[in-house]
């Protein structure tokens, strides 16, 4: 995102903003926006001009399918304004938010197993 903010051309910014607006509309209508989210991340990678990042897109796509959220506007605005520090910060917040949500989902999946009656009895024995 930081590199995209430095290198994005007006056409790139227009495409990114268009994708962001489409995602926001789909969310407001409670529609699926996974395809657009993948296109959004791909667009950022293309704007960056970084060949390695572009090769990581399939991995990013897999993560997007696992969990998505809405921090796109901050990223889009920073790239549009060529604010590299803001873009880096917005992307970092996006990644931290997703990481925290994934950790919470894992914790919630583990919690029922720990509260099962058989598990409580074993805990008392220890």
Name the average pLDDT. Answer: 82
Q: Helical element count?
A: 7
- Shape by Cα distribution: globular
From N to C, what is the helix and strand string? Answer: HHHHHHH
Largest sheet composition? none
What is the distance, rounded to the nearest whole angstrom, between the alpha carbons of the first and last residues?
50 Å
- Class from secondary-structure proportions: mainly alpha
Low-confidence stretches: 119-126
Description:
With 126 residues, the protein is mainly alpha-helical. Helix content is 84%, strand content 0%. It contains 7 helices and no strands. α2 packs antiparallel against α5 and α5 packs antiparallel against α6. The longest helix has 32 residues. The chain is globular, with a radius of gyration of 19 Å. 22% of the residues are buried.
Supply the key terms.
single chain; mainly alpha; globular
Protein topology:
Layout (H helix, E strand, L loop, with lengths): L1 H6 L2 H19 L5 H15 L2 H16 L5 H9 L3 H32 L1 H9 L1
Helix pairs in contact: 2-3, 2-5, 3-4, 5-6
How do you describe this structure in short?
This protein has helices at residues 2-7, 10-28, 34-48, 51-66, 72-80, 84-115, 117-125. It has 126 residues and is an all-alpha fold. The relative contact order is 0.15.
